[in-house]
Amino acid sequence: MAEILEDYKFPRYSKYPFDEWFDGQIRELVMGIDFDVPIPSMRASIYNAAFRKHLRVRTHVTASGTLIVEGLRGKKDPDWHEDRRDNP
After folding, report:
1. Phi (first) and psi of residue 45, to 5 degrees
2. Residues of 26-63 as b/e, b for ≥16 C-beta within 10 angstroms?
3. Chain centroid to CA 10: how far?
4. By the 8 A CB rule, do 79 and 61 touch?
5. How confident is the model over 34-65, as pLDDT tens digits?
6. What value, to the nearest 5°, has the Cα angle with vertex 17 and ends 38 and 55?
7. By Cβ atoms counted within 10 A, which residue in 17, 38, 69, 77 is the most buried?
8. pTM for the predicted model, two decimal places
9. For residue 50, how far is the Cα from the chain centroid?
10. Separation between Cα atoms, residue 30 and residue 60, nearest integer Å
């Protein structure tokens, strides 16, 4: 019979190397090489990953269709708080 657990922390796995991308360097990501979803979806994934890590991040879509990402490592978001998504 299956055991009932009081608590369990499920590991998070990411398809993308967000820790590397958020190391403070400015990176140019190319769709089809660095990621395989539409750019708006990738931007949302980047912002969500930064939110989960309590980090700030900046993105920009270039005229040539690449995605520029700057993870502001060590620069925690001063406006971040637990209920931010519920109370903007």
Report:
1. -65, -40
2. eeebeeeebbeeeeeebbebbeebbeebebbbebeeee
3. 18
4. no
5. 999 999 999 999 999 999 888 889 999 999 99
6. 90
7. 69
8. 0.71
9. 4
10. 12
